[in-house]
Every structure is written in structure tokens, then in C-alpha cells.
Fold this sequence. Notes:
The protein contains 10 helices and 14 strands. By secondary structure, the chain is an alpha/beta fold. The protein folds into 2 domains: 2-135 and 293-310, NAD(P)-binding Rossmann-like Domain (Rossmann fold); 139-289 and 320-339, Dihydrodipicolinate Reductase, domain 2 (2-Layer Sandwich), CATH 3.30.360.10. The longest helix has 19 residues, at 314-332. Nicotinamide-adenine-dinucleotide (NAD) is lined by residues 7-13, 36-39, 42, 50, 70, 85-88, 90, 108-109, 135, 137, 173-175, 191.
Amino acid sequence: xxxxxxxxxxxxxxxxxxxxxxxxxxxxxxxxxxxxxxxxxxxxxxxxxxxxxxxxxxxxxxxxxxxxxxxxxxxxxxxxxxxxxxxxxxxxxxxxxxxxxxxxxxxxxxxxxxxxxxxxxxxxxxxxxxxxxxxxxxxxxxxxxxxxxxxxxxxxxxxxxxxxxxxxxxxxxxxxxxxxxxxxxxxxxxxxxxxxxxxxxxxxxxxxxxxxxxxxxxxxxxxxxxxxxxxxxxxxxxxxxxxxxxxxxxxxxxxxxxxxxxxxxxxxxxxxxxxxxxxxxxxxxxxxxxxxxxxxxxxxxxxxxxxxxxxxxxxxxxxxxxxxxxxxxxxxxxxxxxxxx
Length: 341
Ligand SMILES: NC(=O)c1ccc[n+]([C@@H]2O[C@H](COP(=O)([O-])OP(=O)(O)OC[C@H]3O[C@@H](n4cnc5c(N)ncnc54)[C@H](O)[C@@H]3O)[C@@H](O)[C@H]2O)c1
């Protein structure tokens, strides 16, 4: 039985909590034993909403050992792994502490605030011979899994162009508003757009260069609206955009349109449609399991069977951060193409 400590019970931590409850109910060999959050009000069920999820849900926290200090939790509990759903600027420090205590780590995306921190996380995982996985959840999102299968199998030939978008209202729910402080979150570019950066890296590998136009709208929050062209040697046209200033009743949207030599895949309004150039469009059957559930289940399987975290290697998620850093540099230079290191 794997014993888990969950750190951070904010918007994303609660999604993780629900998945541990589900996995335990299904008889999976995992047990959430401890939860840590610096804000004790969370243990009284006082939550603030995010762009997905439900704040009215309540949980039975009496089943868990509760901590407001991460160090104390690491000191007192006998855990197999920690699940880190803390603000981004705390990912590296919390991950390295747990690895150095001999624990495996599942940490939310983005991997860390900087690629230097990512490198230190990987070093610590190697030095302690422990597994580290980052929750880049689109690698487990059913419609994006179908897209990956089309790209890898070549059944529609090569990709000629692709467009990705994600956006919604400004996140105003986070702990001490960390999401809107660039030094802590990296703005929409690192927090939200990173999902599409990681998808592009996962599907097509590291681009040679990026050219980014981006703008800051909310004082101090970094780049809030982003558009990046990803430059590949074969010339395919790849663009991703993000905007977290779509307020009012907009809600949240994520979509993609990927064009291949022999057809295209379009995901919008939560539905994937496949358009073969020489036949009828169709809607494929996709898994109904949530990516947040599947990613944790996958990590547990890697631990139980001592398998490498092949779908989301930390080296790959660090590369994603390096691409995002090149985007920031390009945006700072008003769109001048910047090499990805
Ligand atoms: N995969 C996804 O789709 C997705 C979606 C949203 C957020 N996230 C990621 O999840 C992480 C958390 O984001 P969030 O939206 O849940 O933020 P949040 O502010 O809602 O939650 C963070 C929680 O951490 C707690 N916390 C802060 N400092 C702490 C400390 N030192 N020790 C213990 N607890 C502490 C806060 O009290 C809060 O409950 C971020 O990295 C974010 O990018 C991922």
C-alpha cells in the first residue's frame, strides 16, 4: 500500500484529493494519509473557486493527519510519495525536500518557475534514485491522446500546420493572489499557455526557435495574452495562443486544429472531430476517464511496477519550461525569433 501526503489543498489540490478518494474506493493500493496546507481554513471547507471544479463540495478531513507545516508533515509521517499542488514558485523547494527524504514526488505543472530549478529537481531525483513526475495533464487528456496517436502513427501523413488555444477569465481565486504575481507564477504564459507549449513539445519535439507577441494587461502579472509561432526545420506552421483576460460570462475554452497531409483533427466545445480529406468526418470514441485521474493512476503504476515515467519524463517537462523561457525572451524583444536552448 502506497502512503501519500498531499500538499496544497487549493483549487488543484482538491482535484487530486477527489482522485485519491476514487482510487481508494476502487481498491487501488494507495492511501492518502496526510494533507498539508498553510491555510487551516481549507480544512474547515472554506474554498475559493477556480475556472473548473466546484467549491460547494465538502470533504471529510477527519480521515487524514492534517498539517499546516510541510516540514512537520515530512518529519512525522512515513510516506511513499508526496503530491505537490502548491503555487508554482514553491514546486522546486518542496520537491527537492521530499526527494532528499527518500520519497517519490508527483508535482503539478508547470514543473517550476525557472529551468534552473527544474534541473535541480532532476538532479535530486537522480541522486536519491526516486521517481519524479510532473502533472502535465494534457498528455493524459483523451482527445489529446488521440491527436498524439495520429501524429506518431503517421496515418494521416505528416503534420502541415496546427493551432492551439486556451483562455478564459482572470484567475482571482489563488492563495494570496500568487497567480497574478509574475515572480510567483510566470503569468498566463507559464501557468496556462504552458499546457499548449508542453503539448507542442510532446507532439513535435523542441522547436528550433520561437517568435512570441505578448502583452501585460494586469499590473505585475507578467504576460496575460500570448501568441507564439514555433519554428521547425521542416517548415510546418505551428501557433499557440492564450488569453486569461476573457472576463464576463466567457468561462473557459481550450481547442486545437491540427492539419495533416491527408486530413485534420479539430477539438472544440469539448468535442473532437476527425476530418479525413477523402471521406466523411467522424467523432471518435474516447475514454471518459479524466486526465487528472489517469495521470495519478499512471504514476502509481510506475511506482508499483518500478517503471520509468515514460509518458512525462522530467527532462521533457524541463524542456517545456525552456521553450516558455525562450517565448518570454522573444516577447520582451517584440517578437524577434529566439533559439530554444
Ligand atoms: N493541471 C491543471 O490543469 C492545473 C489547473 C490549475 C492549477 N494547476 C497548478 O496547480 C498548482 C496550484 O494551483 P492552484 O490553482 O491550486 O492554487 P491555489 O492558490 O488555489 O492553491 C494553492 C494551495 O497551496 C497552499 N499553500 C501555499 N503556500 C503553502 C505552503 N508554504 N505550505 C503549504 N501549503 C501552502 C494554499 O493555502 C492553497 O490552498 C499550480 O502549480 C498550478 O499551476 C494545474
